[in-house]
User: Fold this.
Amino acid sequence: MKNQNKSKQKNKLAKKNLSPVLIFILMALFYISLFIFLSSLSFIQNFLTQFTAFTLEIFLQLLRIPVDLINPVTLQLASGTRLKFVIIPDCTGLYPFAILAGFILAFPAKRGKKMLGILGAFFASFSINYLRMISIMAIAIHSQRAFEIAHLLIWQTSFIILVLGYFFWWIRWK
Amino acid sequence: MEINTKNYAWILLRFVIIFVLLIAFWTLLASIYAQAKMQVLQLALSWYNPSNTPFIRTPGFLQGYAITELTLLSLSLARWNKLNIKLWKQYPWSLLGVMLLLLVFFDFLSNFLELISQGSNSFFLNYTITWLLSAGSITLPFLMWLYLENKTKAL
Assistant:
């Protein structure tokens, strides 16, 4: 009788337990919300946007794309369409990194593999973001329409594929 | 039809073709949807927005959600196999209906929040908008898809 009661209690507990996927989803949402909260703090946002604008100007000058930093977060093309670019937090590569870090932290794996995964996500997100910014600014010199297509469609899609692709790659690798 | 899931080049090619077709379809649909949405929102929020302040957002609004969903849809169709068919047969309304609901619901919600937050310095409001537009657009459709794919072991 006692054994039967014990097994019934165990079954009840198992039913109450959440599936691993659901746990992963809830934990991922928690970590991502936490990272977005931290990144919403004004001093972090100001630092990131100003740092991105400053370093972008250097990279663009090195690539001989004429651009002026007209204020700490605004770049203006010095030739062609002369478009102005205000660097906002979305332009820093922060959000893809926060999402990837949230996914990796929520996924059951060894701590070392998680840390390496997050480090890789950091370099991937920020370096691809620089590539994105440089390419759209180079396109913007010639055509505003082409810039909009590259900005809204091509790079947005590429970033989503990067996040999903990197996460699946990391799951296999770990 | 079943394809070799290890043939990544073939999957990628299929993905690109399907994605371009879907994007073309979405672009046509998005402008009609955006016009209808503007009118509904103006009407629904006239009590809150007496000066009839126009919405700043362009018709490409919520592009993030749409693109994530179209990416997932294209990926799913590009790696079409037995398990994938099972997923589509079991959860057709979740795959398409919930995706559409996510798109429309969050579109209206973020528009509404943006309107309320105009001229407001509320950290919570700005945080919610940022979450919905920047993180939610990738996270929510993907996690929902992941959940359904796992249920049918299609992953």
User: Anything to note?
Assistant: Chain B has one domain: 8-151. Chain B has five helices and no strands.
